[in-house]
Design goal:
The chain is of the alpha/beta class and 296 residues long. The chain folds into two domains: 135 residues, HAD superfamily/HAD-like (Rossmann fold), CATH 3.40.50; 110 residues, Rossmann fold (3-Layer(aba) Sandwich). It is built from ten helices and 14 strands. The strands form three sheets. A seven-stranded parallel beta sheet has the order 1-14-13-12-2-3-4, sandwiched between helices. A five-stranded parallel beta sheet has the order 6-5-7-8-11, with helices on both faces. The longest helix has 12 residues. It starts with a strand and ends in a 5-residue tail after the last strand. The relative contact order is 0.17.
Length: 296
């Protein structure tokens, strides 16, 4: 198996690709500030006339994410579009055609029990879906975000997941991330709760990386460009790198993000290659390119 290509900056690979699909957290910023070199890299991509999409497993709609980036100093003029799993989830729920969403037959709108709060309400606003407070009334559950205060553990959800399993409720997960970067370090993300439900026999419908639906949205946004001319840049082997491979896109792994403690940096010792190979084997995900951070 060939080793990934270790590059000093994205500029060394720019000529090979026409579009760059960038993850948000762990690539552009840490939740509180942009990483050094990010703005210069995006300006260089614009100068080179490359297409730039931001693809995030954020369970929120794209506009709050655009505003957040602008608040951190990254203006929307530096990218072509912002695709979030929340936006894709809203489109999926608005279709309403998936029979897995309707637990029992009735003539009214779908009935949803939300496990979060404001993010889920925003996704459902204006859709033919009724929010209910009692689990017995629900057709399905929706989880998009834990908000700014991600729980340290998921034990608080054990009771409701047990009830949901007994009722055969599907859980729509609008953020498949298992861990998220917060100011307090890594915390469980919605995908961790979805996985727990799935492991106990519950039905989970994932919308976001690495699952196919969101990559269809990417391909539509970049059509008619072939997938082979797209480079996905992310910090998660399980989401960004696996998802890119499934979509036929090349991928670049950013080392400063979610795997920072597991991998370290090249040059610190002689074992970086072995650590990367072991982690890639664990996730069955091999990046084509490795970058310390998103710089040009």
């Amino acid at each position: 198996m060939t080793s990934p290509e270790l590059l000093d900056g994205l500029g060394a690979a720019a000529a090979r690709f026409d579009a760059f699909v960038l993850d948000q957290y762990g690539v552009l910023h840490d939740g509180t500030a942009l990483y050094p070199g990010v703005l210069d890299c995006l300006y260089a991509l614009r100068e080179a006339r490359k297409r730039v999409l931001i693809l995030s497993n954020s369970g929120k709609l794209k506009q709050p994410n655009i505003e957040r980036l602008a608040g951190l100093g990254l203006p929307p003029e530096l990218y072509d579009d912002f695709i979030t799993s929340g936006e894709a989830t809203r489109a999926y729920l608005g279709n309403g055609a998936d029979p897995a969403l309707r637990r029992r037959q009735h003539d009214g709108p779908l009935r949803c029990l939300i496990l979060g709060g404001a993010a889920e309400e925003a996704l459902l606003d204006g859709l033919p879906v009724t929010i209910v407070s009692a689990i017995e009334e629900a057709d399905f559950m929706l989880l998009a975000s834990f908000g700014d205060a991600a729980p340290a553990t998921l034990d608080a959800f054990s009771g409701i997941l047990e009830q949901a399993g007994a009722l055969n409720l599907a859980l729509v997960c609008a953020n498949p991330d298992i861990r998220g970067i917060t100011v307090d370090g890594l915390r469980p993300a919605p995908g961790a709760l979805a996985r727990r439900y799935e492991e106990t026999g519950g039905t989970v419908i994932y919308v976001g990386k690495p699952h196919p639906l969101i990559y269809r949205t990417v391909r539509q946004a970049l059509a008619p460009m072939p997938a082979g001319r797209m480079l996905a840049v992310g910090d998660s082997l399980a989401h960004d790198i696996v998802g890119a491979a499934g979509a036929g896109m090349a991928s670049a792994l950013i080392l400063q993000g979610i795997h920072k403690d597991e991998l370290g940096l090249p040059g610190k010792d002689g074992d970086f290659g072995d650590r990367l190979a072991a982690l890639s084997e664990r996730y069955r995900a091999k990046p084509d390119i490795v970058l310390r951070s998103l710089t040009w």
